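User: Can you fold this complex?
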Amino acid sequence: MNLLSPTQLNQTLPLANTDFSNLAEALEYAARGESGYNFYDGRGRLEYVLSYATLELQAKILARKLVALGCPRGSVVGIIAETDPLFHRFFFACQYAGLIPVALPAGVQLGAHNVYIEQIARMLKGCNAKIAVAPDTHTTFLAEASESLDLVMSGSGSDFDALPEDSNIQLKPFSGDEPAYLQFTSGSTQFPRGVEISQATVMANLKDIAIHGLKLERTDRFVSWLPLYHDMGLVGFVLVPLNSQLSADYMSPRTFAMRPRLWLKILSDNRGTISSSPTFGYALCAKRLRPSDTERYDLSSWRAACVGAERVNHETMDQFANALRDTGFNKNAFVACYGMAECVLAISFSPLNQGLSVDWVDKFQLGTSGKAVPALDNAAPYVDCGEILPSFEYLVRDDDGNDLGDRQCGRICIKGPAVMSGYYQNKAATDEVLSEDGWLDTGDIGYLIGSHIVITARRKDVIIVNGINIWPQDLEMLAERTEGVRLGGVSAFGTVDENQLEHAVLVVETRDKDQSRRNHLIEQLAQALSQSFGLKVHIELTLPGTLRRTSSGKLSRSQTRDAFLKRSSIANLIEQQIPNGNERAHA
Amino acid sequence: MTTLDDIAQKLVELLMTYLTENVKDKKIPTLGSSTDLTSDLELESIQIMEYVVEIEDSYDISIDLESLSNAKTINDLAQIVAREMN
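Assistant: Here's the predicted assembly.
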């Protein structure tokens, strides 16, 4: 029998979310109440309860042990971010110890032992980490990854617990412009870039989210399966609840992928009010739902079902809402969000209690002139991502830096206190996106409708499949290491099918005409891509000279994509014997 | 007594629901212990996880991450299942 019970809503402590100057202060206030974090296991049983009060105590003890290791203030601590109390303990110990925590991926693919170890080693090296820790499930991986690195200490939670505590050590939490954490999100896995977020920066976004985005109240309760090594998981479901003294219930991403219905069960059992997912999570959940589920679940408390991180597909969301109609789920609970780790987490939220709003615009004009003209026929649906949070200034610019007006597509640029300090120890990469006067070029393409933002294309070149960002450079580099592929003879990009689902495509140049060798090459590539990225990739072999280049000779993925779509739509047309091919022009 | 072959055969059966018709047409005659789940069958990682859950549920076992990270073939998985059942 399970004697644990999850932490409560906050009954006694007045809600406060605008007054804290750093994360340590926010934790200390929350620790005066009854709320905290709850961890559910792979079968949906409550496994561990970590109240904010306990977390504060444990974090301080651990912080003294970390300080005693003697690393300079501002040294980086890598934490393999399994959904486990260990992550929270180390993340907040770092706040007190003056060390910078960075969450490292915890997901390992079938047969991908070495790929994973290389990834962790590259990340630890990339941020010059001095300390690394893993939950028990990952200690052997971490041990292998740290072998070639010069770490002060690397080990399991209990290895660190066994260190002596020096009670004379005075803790000086990070504050003001000092760092809060690094976030690996932007940049390829080959050349990882860590977003550096300061205390003042993170607090600015947490406040905006609490007051304007989600309008949090003491009755709110968070439920999440999102990985803690992504901004939506870390900020949205560790820091946002903390900053408003609210409880959060977790299952791991692995549990969600295996048993997505547990997400709904926990929401139902605990009367969760706020939970987020990329579109694919809602789709997966709807697909695995059984008819008996809807009788058992009561989702009427779920007031903000946020959707973001990838293209929002309104049809998928409708299907999810319809499948759950009998559970009391209200489709007006859907909230479209736009954001990125470079701005902590959130840039905009669609209005609460109104559901998704779809802007139908003329495909032809959008494709040719970048104008988003409302239309009924031959129109493409784009979800309105809502009002930009008040701490941001925003502009949409053309490629020459000119400001564009309403309903004109361009690059989305923003400025404000929640914008990152830069990419950690990477001035070149920082200068590419952050201007001296503080404007961040998000790289995303979209248009404004008044103060509302609509995204039409996320970061140029990034391929987003099942909510995971994949950098084409990574697919290309892997392909180039395969025998029979020339350096520079490969291009990777994403395409969107008629169901608005994104797929990865790899076009590879080869002169080889021998069919069995060609098949072998495709198999080799498919295997390598599947093992490294868990990804099914459409592979096309073409003759050298097919890949498009820019005037300076660089490969142009977008032109290669357009040419690919043209080829494949012609092939489709021949197959289907449809005489008129205008419809596929819009990619 | 369940032999490794029995387990492998069961794992192949469980695998069927995850394969597209196209892959089935091409691969069914060759499916067996040596089938590589990470390359031959056009499975996405999320389908593989679903498959692993089905294996766990069928045998009432729990497969750890370290073992999965070293498994590629049906035979590799069958060995894990055999080990966990004891």
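The two ends of chain B are 11 Å apart (CA to CA). The domain at 4-85 of chain B is CATH 1.10.1200.10 (Non-ribosomal Peptide Synthetase Peptidyl Carrier Protein; Chain A).
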